[in-house]
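Batch 3, record 17
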Amino acid sequence: MKKVSEFKVTPWEVSGKVDYDKLVREFGVSKIEDSLLKRIEKNAGDLHFMLRRKVFFAHRDLKWILDEYDKGNKFFLYTGRAPSGSVHLGHLLPWIFTKWLQDKFGVELWFQFPDEEKFLFKNDLSFEDTEKFLNENMLDVIALGFDPKKTHFIIDTKNADLMYKEACKVAKKITFSMVKSSFGLNEQSNVGSIFYTSMQAVPAFLPSVIKGKEIPCLIPHAIDQDPHFRLTRDIMPKLGHYKPASIQCLFLPPLSGAEGKMSSSEDMAIFTTDSPKEVEKKIKKYAFSGGRDTIEEHRKKGGNPDIDVSFQYLKMFFEPDDKKLAQIEKDYRSGKLLTSELKEYLIEKINAFLKEHQNKREKAKKEIEKFLYKS
Amino acid sequence: MKKVSEFKVTPWEVSGKVDYDKLVREFGVSKIEDSLLKRIEKNAGDLHFMLRRKVFFAHRDLKWILDEYDKGNKFFLYTGRAPSGSVHLGHLLPWIFTKWLQDKFGVELWFQFPDEEKFLFKNDLSFEDTEKFLNENMLDVIALGFDPKKTHFIIDTKNADLMYKEACKVAKKITFSMVKSSFGLNEQSNVGSIFYTSMQAVPAFLPSVIKGKEIPCLIPHAIDQDPHFRLTRDIMPKLGHYKPASIQCLFLPPLSGAEGKMSSSEDMAIFTTDSPKEVEKKIKKYAFSGGRDTIEEHRKKGGNPDIDVSFQYLKMFFEPDDKKLAQIEKDYRSGKLLTSELKEYLIEKINAFLKEHQNKREKAKKEIEKFLYKS
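Prediction for the assembled complex:
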């Protein structure tokens, strides 16, 4: 028997070729069934392509969220970003879907910037660094068009007057041995990293505390964050709060191919501030191809879109049109479409997206104040 | 050889008959030498009886504090109170000395109320409880007459917007194995209790952060808190701050005698809100006596002031006059002064003190706002 490639998924590391079916079983989440998709479509009016294509593919308690919504008990959305570097396309993916949820369901979004997280987990990162990235990262979130009236940014160190007390309530219910097993910490881990998950739990119930009534919470996130929220879900009922529900997406692959996830620590990401030239160069040079070695061979045998990073970026992010995508897939598989042509198409799509994003990002500089939650 | 009684001193438990000489060696603190007392007397104009009588008996880096002071580099004071019950005489003792330091040296006091500490360490304590005690406890501190212009109350959960970020900087330098050995925590300890010492470190350098220059810090405290500050002293230089100095006192004994310390968890304390009748009853009924079983025997053989709780309260707290104290000691030792007479004298002293304290405590209700640090 052949040894299958090993993979690892924790909130701090994703490596190897991820077996999502295995992950679903190990984490104990559910795949999103068609009946749930139909209910979302009924409420939203349409179905986002990330749902149709199972980019968002797993969940916890999504049925309950929709039941409550149907009863008139609206949920709020919670997602976040630990500022530790520049934002890349892999970060944007779940936020774009979150924006769609906000628009379609008319709900509030609490967006957490845990500016202490990476400070605590990375030796060489200072608070001066995270402060700089925080400001940059907020621009990317605002640029996506979230409703400032319904969107609240909470920054752990700045909103700690609200959050720390609530985090202590969570922390009192979590022992070291629980976080040790969930997050792979040990006795040499610093005491801030051991405490940290308590802070990540807080936005899941903070709006309920502030408003003095229980509001269901839906967390859209990439599946590697599930260990945090699994623990959060165990604790919340003990504090008299609802368990937060979640809807979880695949990882956008790095340029190098299907292993791991797009990550700023390697030169394998497209950043939101990349120039058209940089995008062109990165896609042409690094985007792993499912095409054949020679044009002749490609024409004859066709390419493999399933392992082709450019095709995956179109499918997961840049080509919402199902018909166009199906045509591209067909043509690539048959050999009619060459890798170079596929890449050109993607480059145009990314650069059109980034041109608009960068414009909005520039305008966002004047809008930050509107989004900051003032306690 | 007789087995000596065992004792235990941690920030959360003091039990047994404390061998202070052993504690000084184990903790690695220094006794306050006469040369240091002379320097304090020179600067302050006189010497507080708690220094003369070695109630404040140990220190770390006190010489450095005085050197800096002589150079014109004033220190600030830092002490605190974890709100978890009513304030008793044992709490007041170091604060009264702290007030004297503030007056004599004209320095700022940062008074921490770590309202999460006991919440995290005691199963049955809620934040509703600590909030109630916090308000009560602040009155006792204010009643002692601290200068509102030079005194800042910081409340961990309410000032966390300032403190949490600084605590994370400390936490990044402390591993679980370090707190485990210092504080007797284990894998079943909650992650808030593991993080907590980072918050207790913050006031030792927060004024330096706020003012943008390094200010020496002197912490007057009962010696059981030394493990916190020993750790704090190890970390501070790594963050570019001075090591805080400390001046440490003995424990005021419980009514029951010379073992442990006055503690609100037992019915062995005199609280600041006790009525004259309650004080009288507690002293008469519970205050351990060094006198003899019968008046005849007492007259003949005399009493032992060294183990007599009433005498110790006079010596440590209620009789600042050295001549009067010496006379009492002599008369008690000779048998001229009976236990009942000694107790009557103490009861009068305590009740006179509490009458004034309770008046000031009442007035303090209108003054809380002046003391709260606004970030």
